[in-house]
Design a protein that fits this description.
This protein is an alpha/beta fold. The chain has a domain of 128 residues: D-Maltodextrin-Binding Protein, domain 2 (3-Layer(aba) Sandwich), CATH 3.40.190. It contains 12 helices and 12 strands. Strands 1, 2, 3, 4, 5 and 11 form a 6-stranded mixed sheet that branches. A 6-stranded mixed sheet has the order 8-7-9-6-10-12, with helices on both faces. Helix 2 links the parallel strand 1 and strand 2. The chain starts with a helix and ends with a helix. 36% of the residues are buried. The N terminus is likely disordered.
């Protein structure tokens, strides 16, 4: 009888402990590198909101913006080591771990629909997960379209780029592509862009319409040639070691929230684009649609040279064009 009571007591204890763990809230730290209240911080907040709603408040996302937990290199290291739970940023940063990511961040290469349906991205993501312990959740949070911005002279075709110094960020695919198209690509830190434009260190830049407005770069620019030349998108990464500790239910919640958040962000960004263009048109910026055929035609020869240089795996262009 005593043994039976003891077994029953132990069973009740395990049930209570298990119930406590089931109802205990889970807190995950999400880090990103951009300013609080900005476009990408809004995305992080939306993700946290979706997770909270889907979990009925049992899973909480704590957001750490503006490099509070480190720069992007440090955040990726933290994910790999399991000291940071979640990071949101552009997937192009992952070319540090697998060079084939470079092809997805190359100008005039893919449309949004082509990227969303490209199965090879899943192959690269799995290779990186096995190598680094960084898992990529579903969803393509495409940023607003990237265009060409210039001073004094509007550039409508690649042939008119000769002698034009364009600010780009530090990316071999970006630098070599714009040099190949005829410009002189000048890699500059984000914080140096406004001054470099005002001092004529560069004659223009390539970037999306919202951030050009938000940073007031348009005060130093005259023209925008709308090209939508590169599909830069953000993703949600989670430490794979953290992922393995979560219940299937929580994993499903995070997966769904990541995809829904990405779709929300695309619609949100499109609304910001229209508003930003109106603001800049009122300030005197002239917007003109570029001819995609002329740009993609010349870019095609540049892409072949990039592959020859070993920027991504040999034969990848042919493989992805099928």
């Amino acid at each position: 009888m005593k043994k039976l009571l003891m077994v029953s007591f132990i069973g009740v204890m395990f049930f209570c402990v298990g119930t406590a763990f089931a109802t205990e809230s889970v807190v995950l730290k999400l880090a990103h590198i951009t300013a609080p209240g900005g476009m990408l911080d809004k995305k992080a907040q939306k993700f946290a909101e979706l997770v909270d709603k889907k979990s009925s408040g049992k899973v909480k996302i704590e957001i750490y913006p503006a490099q509070q937990l480190g720069n992007i290199k440090e955040l990726l290291q933290g994910l790999s080591m399991g000291t940071i739970d979640i990071v949101q940023e552009a997937e192009s940063f992952m070319d540090t771990f697998d060079k084939d990511y470079a092809i997805f961040g190359t100008p005039f290469m893919f449309s949004r629909e082509e990227l969303k349906t490209n199965a090879y991205i899943d192959e690269v993501r799995e290779r990186v997960r096995k190598k680094t312990g960084i898992r990529t959740l579903p969803g393509f949070a495409f940023r607003p379209a990237f265009h060409l911005w210039t001073q004094k002279k509007q550039i409508l075709t690649p042939d008119e780029l000769n002698g034009i110094k364009l600010r780009v960020w530090q990316s071999k695919a970006l630098v070599d592509s714009w040099n190949g198209l005829g410009a002189t690509a000048v890699p500059l830190a984000w914080g140096d862009v406004y001054l470099s434009l005002s001092q004529k260190v560069v004659d223009g830049m390539v970037h999306n319409i919202v951030q050009v407005r938000d940073e007031k770069f348009y005060e130093q620019l005259d023209y925008c040639t709308k090209l939508d030349f590169m599909q830069l998108y953000d993703v949600t990464w989670i430490s794979d070691s953290k992922w393995q500790t979560l219940t299937p239910e929580i994993q499903k919640i995070l997966t769904q929230a990541s995809e829904e958040c990405a779709n929300w962000f695309v619609s949100y960004g499109q609304g910001l684009e229209a508003e930003a263009q109106q603001t800049m048109e009122a300030a005197g910026i002239k917007f003109t649609d570029g001819d995609p055929v002329k740009w993609t035609s010349k870019a095609g020869s540049v892409h072949k040279e990039l592959e020859k240089s070993g920027l991504w795996s040999k034969g990848l262009l042919k493989k992805l064009s099928k």
